Amino acid sequence: MKAVVKHGLEDKEVELRDVPEPEIGPGDVLLEMKAAGVCGSDVEFWRNRITYPINVPVVQGHEFCGVVAAAGDDVAHFAVGDRVVSETGAHVCGVCEFCRAGEYNICPDRLGFGYGVDGAFTNYVRVPERCLHRIPDGVPFEHACLTEPIAVAYNAVCVMSDFDPGDDVVVLGPGPIGLFAAQVAKAAGARVVITGLPQDAVRLAAAEDIGFDAVVDVSNHDLEDLVAERTGGVGARLVVDAAGAQAAFAQAMEIVRRNGQITKIAWNMDPLGLSLDPIVAKAVRVQGSYSHTWRTWENVLRLLAGGALNMDAMISHVAPITDWEAIYTAAEERHAVKAVLRPV
C-alpha cells in the first residue's frame, strides 16, 4: 500500500513509498483510513524543524478516521464496519502517575501516531482499541478526521483556560488550531477577536466567513488600542497564543487584563528573548496546553454532531495522499486553511 513516509532526519526527507499492511495484536483494530488531516507538525517534520524525537522511518499522519476492517480477539467494544476516529496517543505506559490520574496525554512514555509509530497517510493503520471513538451519524469522514485538532483547541480553551460567557478572548494566529480555538471560544459564549498577518490572508478570509466579533490584520491595526477600546481599557480576559512567535507572546502580555490568562498552544524552537515582568506586574497566569483526553474527544464529537462548528470554512483542500507534497507546500505557504488527504 502507498504511504507518506518520513525516512530521515534532514530537510524534506519524506517520500511516497510502498509499505506492508500492518499486523494487529489482540487489543488492536485494523483501521481502513478514509480521511486524514494535514497538521502543521506534518509540515515541520517534512522540513525537520522539530523539538522532539522522531522514530524514522515512520508513516506520517495523526489526524484520522475510518472504518474498522478487522478486530483483534480481545477487542470488546468495536466491530468490523464501525465508523471510528482515533486519538493520537498510540502508546502510553498506563502505569505512571499521569496515566493513573487520567492525564495520559502527558505520559512521559507517550508515542504518537505519525512520529513515534506509523500513522495514517496510507490505507490501513494499526490502532489500539482504547484510542477509538464512534463517529456520530451524519458527521462525514472529512469532518470527523479533524476531531483531533479541534480537541487540541478545546483542551486549551475549555479545559486549561478560565473565562466566562461574555468575556473577551483574543486568539493570536489564524492557523487551523487558532481558528478552531476561536470557534470553540465563540461556542462557549465569549466575544472573540482573532488576529493574523498579511501572509495569513487566506486564513483571515476564512475567519471572516466563520464570523467572529473582529478579524484583525495586525499590520494595519494597533491591536492594543483595539482591545482597549473593546474592553474599556481593561484588556482581554484570555489571550490564546496560537502563533508561537516571540512577537505574539509580547503582544499577549500587552493586551491581557490584570489577573487574566495567557494560554499557549503554539510551539516555537527559538528562545523567547524578552522580559516576563509584565506577567508579574499584572498577576497574569500563563498556561501551557498539550494534546487532549477521552472526555475532550467525546465533547468535540458532540459539537460536530450538533453543527456547532463551521467546518466548511475550515477545509480548503481535499486531495489523495499522492499529492502530499503539493498539500504540504500549500500549508507551509499559508495558502491552505486545513487540508484533508484521502487514501489511494
Describe the structure.
The chain is α/β, with parallel strands linked by helices and 344 residues long. The protein has two domains: 2-146 and 314-342, Medium-chain alcohol dehydrogenases, catalytic domain (Quinone Oxidoreductase, Chain A, domain 1), CATH 3.90.180.10; 151-288, 3-Layer(aba) Sandwich (Rossmann fold), CATH 3.40.50.720. The chain has eleven helices and 18 strands. Strands 3, 5, 6, 9, 10, 17 and 18 form a seven-stranded mixed sheet that branches. Helix 9 links the parallel strand 15 and strand 16. It is globular. The model has no long low-confidence stretch (mean pLDDT 97).
Short key terms for the protein model shown above:
single chain, about 350 residues, alpha/beta, Quinone Oxidoreductase, Chain A, domain 1, Rossmann fold, seven-stranded mixed β-sheet, six-stranded parallel β-sheet, 11 helices, about 25% strand, globular
Write the layout of secondary structure elements.
Elements: E1 2-6, E2 14-18, E3 28-37, H1 40-47, E4 58-59, E5 63-71, E6 83-86, E7 89-91, H2 97-100, E8 111-112, E9 124-128, E10 132-134, H3 141-144, H4 147-159, E11 168-172, H5 176-187, E12 191-196, H6 201-210, E13 214-217, H7 223-231, E14 236-241, H8 246-255, E15 256-264, H9 277-282, E16 285-288, H10 294-305, E17 315-320, H11 324-332, E18 338-342
Parallel strand pairs: 11-12, 11-14, 12-13, 14-15, 15-16, 17-18
Antiparallel strand pairs: 1-2, 1-4, 3-5, 3-9, 3-18, 5-6, 6-10, 7-8
Helix pairs in contact: 1-11, 4-5, 4-10
